[in-house]
Q: What sequence folds into this?
């Protein structure tokens, strides 16, 4: 039998050969893949560096994780969710990624959009016909020029091509956590679901051809997590934790400008079909935070990027550009109210009325609206321990219902999420929640654009 690592680092020492991968590093790799168990299939120093030995042990084993080690101590490799079968076919697999440990943290490099993940040939493993492990049946790694992965060989393996070991693990999805109660929303916490969501978002096209990217406006109290949501989405598509937008927990808004944040599909990728718009936080005091008239100007597309708000005056954008109406692509297509789950019951009447005023204005313009309920892990210890228990938590469900009641939105329009804040690496369950929320925002934006088209098509 093979040695196994389970999520939460269960280790079964029943193998005639042992894993070189440490318990700590196996935990971090499992966190990228979800609730999985790793079982060692192939170890080059034991079974040999020949392709025949690799395929004898690894073919038709489902998803696999390759982990390589070189003389200078780098630990790196790649994941594929598609079986090795020696079919000779080019494999499309959006969940494929390369990784390299930078200290304790595995930094991921996802396959670039539109490229094959690998060729399923009779040789040793390759990724994108670019990175070849145990090349030519030797303990070496070879990087050939290619565009499937944005590889920096200095960062990934220190340009040391000589391997001391190469292991391949079977990745087995474990049953989701058991529970007495059924999930009150169905979510698949898997790497394939994350890849599917990323694919849907990459390939999304707004219903109206004149709108190349939908504009999503984030509105909410100070410190609720508006800027953190952008940073989290940007992190997922960059494949690493980023902090482009200023975020924090100050008593007054850290965002003092109206900002429009496009998101790129990786460092060298093309812009994705949405823009996240960030504003000052809402504050309950009169004259503090974002003003309702400022919001009205933003919604109608009159406020430029980087406009700095002045709490003592209302925005006057060059007499609204001589009363010229903004084009549809300049307007806001979906409004997202960002609410801190730990502070819902503490929301003052003044702040609730301010949000209600915003909602009335948004309603009058027919713009789609949704609520993002953040910090669910801080609100519920059960969720903090395991994010997969989110939709099993009766407490979180009660908070969703409370938000729905206070803000006057349907329960189905309240989306609980956890933003990245203190983390140093991406985590699959968090990604799934965030991407699900973003996909729903795009759906709502399409509903608004569809309504606009229907109105324009009606006879005068």
A:
């Amino acid at each position: 039998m093979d040695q196994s690592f389970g999520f939460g680092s269960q280790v079964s020492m029943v193998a005639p050969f042992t894993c070189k991968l440490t318990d700590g590093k196996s935990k971090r790799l499992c966190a990228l893949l979800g609730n999985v168990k790793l079982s060692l299939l192939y170890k080059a120093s034991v079974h040999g560096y020949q392709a025949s030995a690799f395929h004898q042990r690894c073919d038709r084993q489902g998803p696999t994780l390759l982990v390589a080690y070189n003389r200078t101590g780098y630990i790196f490799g790649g994941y594929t969710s598609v079986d090795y079968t020696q079919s000779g076919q080019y494999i499309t697999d959006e969940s494929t990624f390369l990784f390299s440990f930078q200290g304790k943290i595995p930094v991921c490099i996802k396959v670039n959009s539109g490229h094959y993940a690998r060729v399923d040939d009779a040789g040793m493993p390759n990724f994108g016909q670019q990175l070849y492990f145990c090349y030519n049946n030797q303990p070496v790694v070879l990087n050939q020029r290619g565009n499937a992965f944005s590889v920096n060989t200095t960062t990934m393996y220190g340009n040391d091509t000589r391997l001391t070991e190469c292991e391949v693990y079977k990745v087995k999805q474990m049953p989701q956590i058991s529970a007495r109660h059924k999930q009150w929303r169905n979510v698949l916490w898997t790497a394939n679901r994350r890849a599917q969501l990323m694919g849907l978002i990459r390939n999304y096209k707004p219903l109206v051809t004149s709108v190349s990217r939908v504009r999503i406006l984030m509105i909410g109290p100070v410190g609720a997590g508006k800027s953190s949501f952008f940073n989290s989405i940007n992190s997922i598509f960059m494949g690493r934790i980023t902090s482009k937008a200023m975020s924090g927990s100050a008593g007054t808004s850290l965002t003092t400008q109206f900002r429009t944040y496009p998101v790129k599909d990786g460092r060298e990728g093309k812009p994705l079909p949405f823009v996240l718009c960030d504003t000052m936080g809402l504050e309950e005091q009169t004259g503090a935070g974002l003003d309702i008239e400022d919001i009205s100007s933003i919604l109608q597309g009159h406020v430029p990027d980087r406009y700095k708000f002045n709490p003592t005056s209302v925005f006057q954008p060059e007499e609204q550009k001589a009363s010229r109406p903004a084009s549809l692509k300049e307007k806001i297509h979906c409004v997202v109210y960002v609410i801190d789950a730990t502070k819902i019951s503490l929301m003052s009447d003044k702040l609730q009325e301010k949000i209600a005023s915003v909602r009335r204005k948004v309603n009058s313009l027919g713009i789609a609206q949704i609520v993002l309920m953040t910090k669910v892990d801080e609100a519920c210890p059960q969720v903090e321990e395991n994010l997969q228990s989110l939709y099993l938590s009766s407490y979180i469900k009660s908070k969703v219902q409370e938000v729905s009641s206070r803000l006057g939105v349907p329960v189905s329009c309240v989306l609980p999420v956890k933003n990245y804040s203190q983390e140093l690496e991406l985590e699959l369950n968090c990604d799934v929640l965030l991407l699900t929320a973003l996909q729903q925002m795009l759906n709502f934006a399409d509903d608004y654009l569809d309504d606009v088209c229907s109105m324009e098509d009606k006879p005068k």
Observations:
- The longest helix spans residues 428-457.
- The chain has a mean pLDDT of 86.
- The first strand starts at residue 4 and ends at 6.
